[in-house]
Specification:
The chain has 188 residues and is of the alpha/beta class. The chain has eight helices and five strands; from the N terminus they run βαβαβαβαβαααα. The structure holds 4'-phosphopantetheine (PNS). Residues 8-10, 37, 40, 73-74, 102, 105-106 line the site of 4'-phosphopantetheine.
């Protein structure tokens, strides 16, 4: 039996935690379909097309993983592609309540579908798309939290915030004497 699972989510943007879970899922399912919800948020940072492209690039080496998008109910989409499992990641106890609710609702909607929970590596246990967006929007570093291509995309999108952050950092690194000299030059 070919066990097909879907890994649904917003992936705005994909993080190293998502990628870690995809790699784990790909090892236990014959086919894993990473499914991006099309209408998850009114104003996402990345368009569905951008997220699709990033995830495609990130999973190019995983032959049993494919990326798709869907609208409406997750269970309906799962049925339409004959998936039998929904894969979701649980990072901490705080995720559990929401995930349990969702899994039980999905079971109510479609009793034949099973939800499988997996844990990403503990080094990603605090990483979420929302926090990555927040840090990046304020010009902070997201290295190690997201794959390099996502980091690059974030930089492109948020260039002014990063420029501001880099400038502040550069000024802070300057020696007090150099700062004083600059101030005097400005006053003159
Ligand atoms: O990455 P996210 O935002 O935590 O993913 C949430 C997602 C997309 C899995 C969830 O919102 C979802 O399944 N939405 C589709 C609509 C649906 O089926 N709702 C009922 C699930 S209880």
């Amino acid at each position: 039996m070919q066990r097909v699972a879907i890994y649904p989510g917003s992936f705005d943007p994909p993080t190293n935690g998502h990628l870690d879970l995809i790699e784990r899922g790909a090892k236990i399912f014959e086919e894993l379909v990473v499914a991006i919800l099309r209408n998850s948020e009114k104003s996402p940072m990345f368009s569905v097309a951008e997220r699709l492209e990033m995830l495609r690039q990130l999973t190019a080496d995983l032959k049993n993983v494919r990326i798709d998008t869907f609208d409406g109910l997750t269970v309906e989409y799962a049925k339409s592609i004959e998936a039998t499992c929904i894969l979701r990641g649980i990072r901490a106890i705080s995720d559990y309540e929401y995930e349990l609710q969702m899994a039980l609702m999905n079971r109510k909607l479609e009793p034949t579908l099973e939800t499988v929970f997996m844990m990403p590596a503990d080094k990603y246990s605090y990483v979420s798309s929302r926090l990555v967006r927040e840090v990046a929007q304020a010009g902070g570093p997201v290295k190690g939290l997201v794959p390099e291509i996502v980091e690059k995309k974030l930089r492109e999108k948020l260039e002014p915030a990063y420029r501001f952050h880099d400038e502040i950092h550069r000024v802070e690194q300057e020696s007090p004497a150099a700062r004083e000299k600059k101030k005097r030059k400005k006053r003159a």
